[in-house]
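Exercise 3.2. Students should predict the tertiary structure of the chain below and write it as structure tokens, then compare their answer with the key that follows.

Predict this chain's 3D structure.
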Amino acid sequence: MQASPSATGASPTAFQRRSQLYRRHLDLDAAFADYEGVLAVAAYADPRVERALAERLGLADLSTWPRSGCAGPNAPQWLADAGRQPPNRPNKAVAQEDGGLIARLSEQEFLILQGLEADPGLFAALQGNWPSDAAESVHPLPHADSHCWLALSGALASEALAKLCAVDLSSRSFGLCDVAQTSLARVNAIILRQDLGATPCFHILSDASSAEYLWDALVDAMREFGGAPVGLEALRTLKLRDRPSESFSPTERHPRIQPRKAP
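Answer key:
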């Protein structure tokens, strides 16, 4: 079941849990929404403009969206018993039936991301099923508290990332469900590729204390390509499309786009 925004115009200060970036979003006049108890930016501008941006180059903040992890010798079996499909080797991810993603960071460590369309309550049910017996050799990892979560989408996403990361993240070298644990803008980051329909998309997780710095670095890197922040609704729209929309340049109608002028 897809989680729909139950209230638009939600205020970040009304929620106990909010993104480390909420002040940045307020400065951009973001429209926040309540997704079954999860606060997220729904949009900054007109939906058609944001969809076109997300197809070209858009940056979304998913830091409040549910995620977790687990580790231990029995972690792969515990995930399988919970109805999940874990990757069979490190630095790979597997898309789950509900649209979520499980990435294997090492032989015994896993990262779990909820799908953008899923009901957060379903993820909470999984989280409430952690084994209480230490003998089961698996324990949770609180990635929701330790990491921020950004998503960079669009045909030019890998080009923008190339300005900040030494790893080749182009399609010829970094395929669907590949995982890189690397340095991005000089901070440690986990980068996973999970395309949205026909649009490339990179999930980026990094230390929560670096959220504002990393956001600003990515926004600056995108300016050269006409990219800008987008809300969750733009990404969810892309997920439902199997091909890019008609040619449309959003630059003149989006107040957040300021392409860098040639010297």
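Discussion points: DSSP finds eight helices and 14 strands in the chain. Helices lie at 22-27, 47-56, 75-81, 120-127, 143-146, 157-162, 211-223, 232-239.
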